[in-house]
From TrEMBL:
Residue window of the full protein shown: 491 to 782 of 807
Name used for this protein in its record: Bifunctional diguanylate cyclase/phosphodiesterase
Domain EAL: 24-278
Length: 292
């Protein structure tokens, strides 16, 4: 049932690879059990400020092992959503991320580092979200300015009034909102910007050929310039080559994330880097509170 690529050499489940071997129901049951037991861990990937080269913060990424093998979040997150466990998954990741931030805050002696937590689209219209987020921040003594919630564009297209109310309450906690995977959806930026965003993360697919494809480059250049004029922070995802950094910096992209700058690691493994380069992280201003 579980494929192993040699001894101690675990293969990762990813869409279209080996997953057919485990039937969906088995996976659903195993995931339900894991979530109920809190058996979800978190990996942290650095987000770097392009102008200063400093560490801005980290993105928290959920990790789950099934029978000793890593299952890709692209597989188990949609499953969690389907079985109605998205909120519980977010709660587990958020709690660990805040607990880890409290440790890093203590080691750094400041609360300038940020952490981004991914939420499922339906959650942004869930009126109970802000209170749960607020309670978690409070429990760990983490500043709301340190937290960004990331949502894909499907999350911005739900009930307008509900989203507006949730966002207003989150802003009261100084929590920011990022649009994730921009460029992969079907809606225009103008449509997406009807919800006030603090950050837009440009999907890896768009960033990939940025130094090779002049058309893509021109498109992104216009995008960065527009977003910066609107006061929106831009993050390029999936940066793997130094040439991409040069181009992104010259185009006014604010931040970058990718294997070139750091792979996702456990909190413990990330700590030396955080202590080393996080010491100089400048404070982050509270999110703007313009009303749309
Ligand atoms: P995402 O939020 O866009 O996260 C970035 C993904 O890109 C991560 O994959 C990260 O490991 C990967 N990545 C980063 N840099 C590079 C690079 O240079 N090259 C390549 N090829 N990949 C890179 P990961 O951890 O497998 O997560 C996949 C997606 O699963 C995430 O995409 C996010 O949408 C979702 N996800 C992860 N954790 C959570 C969670 O706690 N809750 C929810 N709702 N979704 C999550
Ligand atoms: Mg994300
Ligand atoms: Mg993304
Ligand atoms: Mg994604």
């Amino acid at each position: 049932m579980v494929k192993r690529a040699g001894k101690n050499n675990f293969q990762q489940y990813s869409p279209g690879m080996g997953l057919e071997a485990v039937d969906d129901l088995t996976l659903q049951h195993a995931l339900t059990r894991a979530i109920d037991a809190g058996e979800i861990s978190v990996a942290y990937q650095p987000v770097m400020d392009l102008a200063s080269g400093r560490l801005h913060g980290l993105e928290a990424l959920a990790r789950w092992q099934y029978e000793g093998m890593d299952v890709a979040p692209d597989v188990f997150v949609p499953t969690a959503e389907r079985i109605g466990r998205a909120g519980q998954l977010t709660a587990l990741v958020l709690d660990q991320a805040c607990s880890q931030m409290a440790v890093w805050n203590g080691l750094l002696g400041h609360r300038n580092l940020t952490v981004a937590v991914n939420i499922s689209p339906a959650e942004l219209a869930d009126p109970t979200l802000p209170a749960r987020v607020g309670a978690t921040l409070h429990r760990h003594g983490v500043d709301g300015r340190q937290l960004t919630l990331e949502v894909t564009e499907a999350g911005l297209l739900g009930d307008r009034k509900s989203i507006h109310d949730v966002l207003a309450t989150l802003r009261g906690l100084n929590v920011s909102l990022a649009l994730d995977d921009f460029g992969t959806g079907y809606n225009t930026l103008a449509q997406l910007l009807t919800v006030q965003l603090d950050t837009v993360k440009i999907d890896r697919l768009f960033v990939q050929d940025i130094d090779r494809d002049p058309q893509r480059r021109a498109f992104l250049e216009a995008m960065f310039s527009l977003l910066s004029r609107l006061g929106v922070v831009t993050v390029a995802e999936g940066v793997e080559r130094p040439e991409q950094i040069e181009v992104l910096r010259s185009m006014g992209c604010t931040m970058a994330q990718g294997f070139l700058l750091g792979r996702p690691y456990s909190g413990e493994d990330m700590t030396p880097l955080v202590v080393d380069i996080g010491a100089q992280t400048p404070p982050r201003p509270a999110p703007q509170r313009l009303d749309d």
